[in-house]
Amino acid sequence: MGLGDDIERILWTEQEIADKISELGSQITRDLRHGGVAPPPPIAVVVGVATGAFMFVADLVKKIDLSIAVDFIRVESYGSGTVSSGRPTIPFDLKLDVGGKHVLLVEDIIDSGRSMACLIDYMKSRGASSVSVCTLLDKPARRKVDFEVVGEGKFYSGFECPDEFVVGYGLDFDEAYRNLPYIGVLRPELYQ
Q: Do β-strands 183-186 and 7-12 pair in parallel, antiparallel, or remain unpaired?
């Protein structure tokens, strides 16, 4: 019995995810190259939201054909549950200085919007000149807080996610299932 047995159904295959990431990387490259973000390198700081976005960040940066820096930040709002606490915190800070730079926040999934709003405000407070957001999954059915990109920033979204609990490709339930190469719906009896 393997991890895949806990999946009710697959929403996006490994190939579909790879194709979408290629599209996103190409769009981000075009926008940063032509969007008024001036050299010198690095043109942007890609900030991955740990831990869920680690696979997405690794694959996405390979598709961005520009000089970039990469860092990670941690924001917590779930703990071991399946519903956001509504009070995000930042227990793990950046190593790089983002002052005067374009920041591309890369997230695995945006649902309530609270964590992303918190991160955008944080990047502004650190002096970022503009902030873009790239999420692999967007779950607008759960949105509680609207967030806005900053300056010349843009919003990039891979897939619109149904209002179901999903795991795989970095997304977890209680730290499990991150290593699945696809994204699927976790069988409800495993977390209810």
A: antiparallel
